[in-house]
Amino acid sequence: MREMSLNNELTFNLPPKPLLIVLSGPSGVGKDAVLSRMRELRYPLEFITTMTTRPRRASERDHIDYHFVSPAKFQEMIKRNELLEWANVYGNWYGVPREPIKQALERGQDTMVKVDVQGAATLKKLVPQAVFIFLMPPSLEELMLRLKLRHTESSFDLALRTKTAAEEIKKLPFFDYVVYSRRDEIDRAVADIMAIITAEKCRVKPREVSL
């Protein structure tokens, strides 16, 4: 009985397993803004920077918002198996680097990665024990307004992204959680995401992610 008690005590004192948190949602919903705010607040997370071949916008910073690479470089990374997931979205390539995620999890660090809904579906098959969060707009009308205010899309692109968003929202049942991204309420969305992470840390049967 004493040996069993000691074993149970050791089990209870083990630190929580590191989480892989996948944040996804339609284009323009505010994923970058939410992650930027989480970085500002210095939450103890490893934020993985996505690779992309699309041109950098004026407000974006290389190696922080994205790793901006050439199409040739991107294809080399695919061949070398350096990307965990990749997809062509609106004519540009996006991919998630494998090694930074692996290293962070091995250090016991909770890790967050941002992907589009198509990428999230792929990651769900590769790492089903990750935590999948869908960032939801209050409405499609609100989402379209945000896209217009970015002044980065043509009328054709706006219509395409709105139509795609409607289809992506139908994928909500594949996710574990939904967080609403309301205008001027970034801190509320961040708080909801941190509450999800706290709840996951309290699971009786913790998730175990392996790459």
Provide tags for this entry.
single chain, alpha/beta, Rossmann fold, 5-stranded parallel beta sheet, 9 strands
CATH class: Alpha Beta
User: How many domains is the backbone divided into?
Assistant: 1
- What form results from the Cα inertia axes? globular
Strand content: 15-25%
- Tell me what the CATH architecture is: 3-Layer(aba) Sandwich
**Count of helical stretches:** 8
How would you classify the helix and strand content by structural class?
Answer: alpha/beta
Strand order of the largest sheet: 2-7-1-8-9
Question: What does this entry look like structurally?
Answer:
It is built from 8 helices and 9 strands. The chain has 211 residues and is an alpha/beta fold. It has a single domain, classed as Rossmann fold (3-Layer(aba) Sandwich). The protein has a 5-stranded parallel sheet with strand order 2-7-1-8-9, sandwiched between helices. Helix 2 packs across helix 8 and helix 6 runs antiparallel to helix 7. The N and C termini lie far apart (38 Å). The N terminus is likely disordered.
Topology at a glance:
Blueprint lengths: L1 H11 L7 E5 L6 H10 L5 E3 L2 E2 L14 E2 L2 H9 L3 E7 L2 E6 H9 L4 E4 L2 H10 L4 E6 L3 H11 L4 H15 L7 E4 L5 H16 L10
Parallel strand pairs: 1-7, 1-8, 2-7, 3-4, 8-9
Antiparallel strand pairs: 3-6, 5-6
